[in-house]
Amino acid sequence: MPSIYDLKPAFQGLLRPLCARLAAGGITPNQITLAALLLSLANGTALALYATEAWPLLLLPAVLLVRMALNALDGMLAREHGMQSRLGAVLNELGDVLADAALYLPLALVPGVPATLVVLLVFLAILTEFAGIQAIQIGAERRYDGPFGKSDRALLFGAIGLLLGLGFSPGPWLMLLLALAAVLALLTVLNRVRHALLGGRQA
Length: 203
Description:
Blueprint: H1 8-24, H2 29-49, H3 55-80, H4 86-104, H5 115-137, H6 150-165, H7 172-198
Helix pairs in contact: 1-3, 2-3, 2-4, 3-4, 3-6, 4-5, 5-7
């Protein structure tokens, strides 16, 4: 199945001039990674503290878009400007998991949102990234297979935040959407494990 991740090369192409300017200015990938995490923690805290208000929900799509850009930039700085490091690799993986949890778990506090499904989806998101990393331990490449990876999660939760922030009432539509996302997330875990065991290279 296709994934938003397939658009990553085009997205990186748009960001490449900015990446070059950041590198020239002495900005490091680790600084970008930490900025993305702090941004996520800030929006997540606002969602948790003001769960009955619309503005933190309306901020969520913009924060997720900025976070995606920062995630792309830290990798590009590392690879294309010779700034790769062991610390950076650790921060990158941990930062993604922590940012997901910080941004998505507070949605469980929004009145009417099915909290159990939100928590389940966050757990599956963590499991998805763990499955991708585990591939390295058996000699395969880090897996990014879909159909429901990090970018797809961002699109889903950004859309949910926008709809709820605009006044759409949580209802059966949201429960069905989150349940479908959980199924796709589980399928993603299985896909990453399967491709890791096959040792195939992702196109």
